[in-house]
């Protein structure tokens, strides 16, 4: 392999440098190399290319590498590929990488494939060179090939190449193997690969393994892996640990975890940190977190920030402003507060825009933790390869609603017919809800739902709650 100062993966040449010709050689050493190179010593020409690169003389480095490559030194051919990728032309980079790759230089093959894919869009040629490099033992090439196969829907090939990369130590491929297995209902395989990656230090794998264990009712195991992920500053794991501390009534620990997650910009955690600070009596901190979440567009945080401004600072104008933002985003309690508050400040006409009486909302029951974990896993699985994002909160609402409305039933064999009869909803809508729920709970039987399907099913579950609550 060649050498290039500052390259992404710097490798020295395999042959030892002659004594007195180490990097940083003096004038005598340089003179000796020049004499040997002019006399036809290919190795000396290659080393001169290295030497001039270290001195920052790119033109001289190219000159000597071209002489060495023309005489058959493939390390110089590789270095010329790097040289042209950085300073020259794409065509020349491809030519020199191709020369080195053609005689078995694995990294040249991988670099050539990357250029062909990313600069020329030549998928067929890139794939051939990635495969050449991967079969010769290149871990990065195996991973790139696996991702290409995933994008092309070639699951078996993707698994094989990810497996090669993972067994060679690529933790990202081990993590991806976990998701491929989970998506197809192979939970034992998912557990195996996520654990391998997590114990190697892959934070996302530790977090997703925690979700997987929580979804399978192992809260202690889940917490252990959340802590492993949080040790690598994973905000999702920090949020989960905040929730665990909150469930135990440990407000100070919960605050510490939620604030760590909130500092990464997670709006939900900013809002929750605000609520915890309220419980702890720290109004300034609560205001800070509510304000940040409200500025990020969260209507619940905007509403509570408005309440805080009025209660703690007698700031009616500020309270109105945040109530207005929340109400405009559909927050009904904020709208009612506005209707009550505005006449006292001389804005009676605007008050008429907002409902004066609170609605009679259906009491939404929070989904069980294992259902929330399933929802997050699905959201992550869909988003992992660039799919249309699905909101974990929407998926948890679907699962939680089904769980809440069917809990009175002892026999679930005719649950779809029972829900249809009780709610008056079309049977097809209830069956679609049942199908999406089944996929979320036990993946592998059907593809993940699309964003459009989720919207349809959300409309069904919200209608279902209203209809059943009115009975």
Short recap of the structure:
With 471 residues, this protein is an all-alpha fold.
Structure characterization notes:
The chain is mostly helical. Helix content is about 70%, strand content about 0%. It has 26 helices and no strands. The chain has helices at about 25-40, 40-55, 60-70, 75-85, 90-100, 105-120, 125-135, 140-150, 155-165, 170-185, 185-200, 205-215, 220-230, 235-245, 250-260, 265-280, 285-295, 300-315, 315-330, 330-340, 350, 370-385, 390-405, 415-425, 425-440, 450-470. Helix 8 runs antiparallel to helix 9 (about 155-165), helix 13 (about 220-230) crosses helix 14 and helix 23 runs parallel beside helix 26 (about 450-470). The chain is elongated, with a radius of gyration of 31 Å. Residues about 1-25 have low confidence and may be disordered.
* Shape estimate: elongated
Give the count of helical stretches: 26
Averaged pLDDT: 89
Radius of gyration from the CA trace? 31 Å
Task: Report the β-strand fraction as a percent range.
Answer: under 5%
Distance between the termini: 76 Å
Helix content: over 70%
Order of H and E elements: HHHHHHHHHHHHHHHHHHHHHHHHHH
- Total E-strand runs: 0
Biggest sheet details: none
How is the secondary structure organized here?
Elements: H1 27-38, H2 42-54, H3 58-70, H4 74-87, H5 90-101, H6 106-118, H7 123-135, H8 139-151, H9 155-167, H10 171-183, H11 187-199, H12 203-215, H13 219-230, H14 235-247, H15 251-262, H16 267-279, H17 283-295, H18 299-313, H19 316-328, H20 332-341, H21 348-351, H22 369-383, H23 392-406, H24 415-423, H25 427-441, H26 451-469
Helix pairs in contact: 1-2, 2-3, 3-4, 4-5, 5-6, 6-7, 7-8, 8-9, 9-10, 10-11, 11-12, 12-13, 12-22, 13-14, 14-15, 15-16, 16-17, 17-18, 18-19, 19-20, 22-23, 23-25, 23-26, 24-25, 25-26
């Amino acid at each position: 392999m060649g050498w290039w100062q500052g390259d992404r993966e710097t490798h020295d040449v395999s042959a030892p440098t002659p004594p007195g010709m180490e990097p940083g050689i003096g004038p005598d050493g340089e003179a000796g190399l020049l004499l040997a190179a002019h006399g036809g010593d290919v190795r000396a020409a290659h080393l001169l290319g290295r030497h001039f690169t270290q001195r920052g003389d790119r033109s001289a480095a190219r000159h000597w590498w071209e002489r060495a490559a023309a005489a058959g030194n493939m390390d110089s051919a590789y270095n010329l590929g790097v040289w042209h990728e950085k300073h020259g032309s794409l065509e020349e980079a491809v030519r020199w990488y191709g020369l080195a790759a053609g005689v078995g230089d694995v990294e040249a093959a991988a670099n050539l494939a990357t250029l062909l894919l990313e600069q020329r869009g030549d998928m067929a040629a890139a794939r051939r060179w990635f495969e050449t490099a991967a079969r010769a033992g290149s871990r990065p090439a195996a991973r790139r090939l696996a991702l290409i196969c995933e994008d092309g829907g070639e699951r078996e090939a993707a698994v094989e190449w990810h497996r090669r990369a993972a067994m060679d130590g690529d933790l990202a491929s081990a993590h991806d193997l976990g998701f491929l297995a989970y998506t197809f209902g192979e939970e034992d395989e998912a557990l195996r690969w996520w654990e391998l990656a997590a114990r190697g230090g892959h934070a996302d794998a530790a977090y997703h393994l925690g979700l997987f264990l929580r979804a399978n009712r192992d809260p202690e195991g889940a917490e252990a892996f959340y802590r492993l992920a949080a040790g690598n500053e994973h905000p999702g794991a920090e949020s989960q640990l905040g929730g665990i501390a909150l469930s135990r009534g440990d407000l100070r620990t919960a605050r510490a975890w939620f604030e760590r997650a909130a500092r990464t910009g997670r709006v939900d955690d900013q809002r929750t940190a605000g609520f915890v600070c309220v419980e702890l009596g720290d109004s300034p901190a609560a205001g800070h977190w509510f304000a940040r979440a409200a500025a990020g567009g969260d209507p619940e945080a905007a509403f509570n920030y408005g309440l805080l401004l009025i209660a703690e600072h007698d700031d009616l104008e500020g309270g109105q402003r945040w109530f207005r933002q929340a109400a405009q985003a559909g927050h009904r309690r904020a709208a009612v507060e506005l209707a009550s508050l505005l006449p006292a400040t001389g804005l009676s006409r605007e008050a008429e825009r907002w409902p004066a009486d609170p609605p009679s909302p259906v009491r939404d029951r929070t989904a069980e933790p294992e259902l929330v974990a399933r929802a997050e896993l699905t959201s992550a699985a869909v988003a992992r390869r660039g799919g249309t994002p699905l909101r974990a909160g929407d998926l948890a609402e679907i699962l939680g609603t089904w769980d809440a409305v069917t809990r009175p039933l002892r026999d679930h064999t005719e649950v779809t017919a029972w829900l249809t009869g009780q709610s008056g909803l079309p049977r097809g809508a209830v069956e679609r809800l049942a199908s999406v729920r089944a996929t979320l709970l036990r993946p592998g039987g059907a593809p993940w739902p699309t964003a459009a399907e989720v919207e349809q099913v959300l409309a069904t579950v919200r209608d279902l709650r209203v209809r059943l609550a009115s009975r």
